[in-house]
Write a structure and sequence with these properties.
Strand content: under 5%
Number of strands: 0
Order of helices and strands: HHH
Number of helices: 3
Number of domains: 1
Distance between the termini: 68 Å
Shape: elongated
Radius of gyration: 20 Å
Helix content: over 70%
Oligomer: single chain
Length: 95
């Protein structure tokens, strides 16, 4: 159980550092997505044998990945109005 708590704290801290670097882009990026995903793999390897508790680290990874996916989807949807107006212009020019 100690290993789970240590990995949970380490991964949570790394996510916090990543989040702060995204929110405050002027800061140096110490932690990026690649680092986090590598860290998740290491944490999984180290805690995967704890059948009853390994979900704790998995849940943190799942939540992080869902946040990343949500941000990407929001980014795509924010482009739709621009894309729609460009498409309307193309239709107007080709008709």
């Amino acid at each position: 159980m100690v290993a789970i708590n240590i990995w949970k704290s380490y991964v949570s801290y790394a996510i916090q550092e990543y989040t702060e670097s995204v929110e405050y882009p002027g800061n140096d990026k110490v932690v990026d997505v690649l680092f986090l995903r590598t860290l998740f793999r290491k944490a999984d390897k180290a805690t995967g044998h704890h059948v009853s508790q390994s979900h704790i680290v998995w849940d943190i990874q799942k939540d992080f990945e869902l946040q990343q996916l949500s941000a990407q989807v929001r980014g795509v949807y924010s482009l739709l109005p621009s894309f729609s107006s460009i498409l309307g212009l193309v239709r107007l020019l080709t008709s």
